[in-house]
Design a protein that fits this description.
By secondary structure, the protein is of the alpha/beta class. The protein is built from 13 helices and ten strands. A hairpin with a 2-residue loop joins β4 and β5.
């Protein structure tokens, strides 16, 4: 069975999407539509901006969403998922790809999400850190024992977990992780504590927008970050999407459940190959590839 997976923040690169824009009239139309909807020329930043410009949350999130979704659209009949999943932001791309959201509504929600997260980041100094080579349970125990706000945020693959919280708590937790035997505990160059309680203001803001948006029936199940199991009910999808901002991204568990339900071929739709690498670490027997255009 084919599992189509969609990357999140961090997969961006300068020049992303330019090949699609130049080769496919449908892609050009969708990119121009996006420029109009967003109120600025995101294509200029994607195609020829600086890495710094592209790193701004309000740009990064719509850029990755656009690359993934437009790629899935120009694949046409070659786009045949039996199930989908997205890593954090990628969940919105997956929901457009499997018909739950239309292109315009998906882009509006992603843009609102990015702006709400950026505002939440400015309210309190916060960050994230990657912890390598430590059992998930041990990481969770250290987070719970550390004063301040620090939580497990991204379960990326066995032995690779990202923690999120206020700056001082993250710094203390990183030292404790190293003492406990972590191979690395490295503060990441991000400006906020995504997937932590510090995103509550953003969650509340996004909840209003999501509740006001029409969600259609799915063409195939989505494995959402919050529950990790196949979901097809639109109301449940909405609820999980709202919870996602303050809840951890359970990517390891989602991929394991997709495999358990029959997935044996994973296609990454969007920039980069990060998710393919994570799938291989979760289960080396899986076949993975990037979305291919004919």
């Amino acid at each position: 069975m084919n599992a189509y997976i969609f990357p999140g923040q961090g997969a961006q690169f300068v020049g992303m999407g330019l090949d699609l824009y130049e080769k496919y009239p449908l892609a050009q139309e969708l990119f121009e539509n996006a420029n109009e909807l967003l109120g600025f020329n995101i294509t200029d930043i994607m195609f020829e901006g600086t890495p710094e410009d592209l790193k701004e949350t309000k740009v990064t999130q719509p850029a990755i969403f656009l690359h993934s979704v437009i790629l899935s659209k120009v694949m046409g009949e070659n786009f045949k998922p039996d199930m989908v999943a997205g890593h954090s932001l990628g969940e919105f791309s997956a929901l457009v790809a499997n018909g739950v959201l239309n292109f315009e509504d998906g882009l509006k929600l992603v843009s609102q999400r990015a702006l709400a997260m950026q505002k939440a980041c400015e309210l309190q100094p916060s960050t994230m850190a990657a912890v390598l080579g430590l059992e998930d349970e041990r990481v969770e125990q250290i987070c719970e024992a550390t004063p301040g706000i620090v939580v497990a945020a991204n379960y990326n693959c066995p032995g690779q977990l990202v923690i999120s919280g206020d700056v001082s708590a993250i710094e203390v937790a990183c030292e404790k992780m190293k003492e406990a035997g972590a191979r690395r505990a490295l503060v990441l160059p991000v400006g906020g504590a995504f997937h932590s309680p510090l995103m509550e203001p953003a969650r509340e803001e996004l909840a209003t927008a999501i509740e006001a948006t029409s969600f259609n029936a799915t063409t195939c199940p989505i494995y959402q970050n919050v529950t990790t199991i196949a979901v097809s009910d639109s109301e449940e999808i909405k609820k999980n999407l709202i919870s996602q901002l303050t809840a951890p991204v359970k990517w390891t568990q989602s991929v394991q459940n997709m495999i358990k339900d029959g997935a044996n071929y994973f296609v990454e739709v969007g920039p980069g190959r990060v998710l393919q690498g994570l799938v291989k670490k979760i289960n080396p027997e899986m076949e993975t590839t990037s979305a291919i255009l004919t």
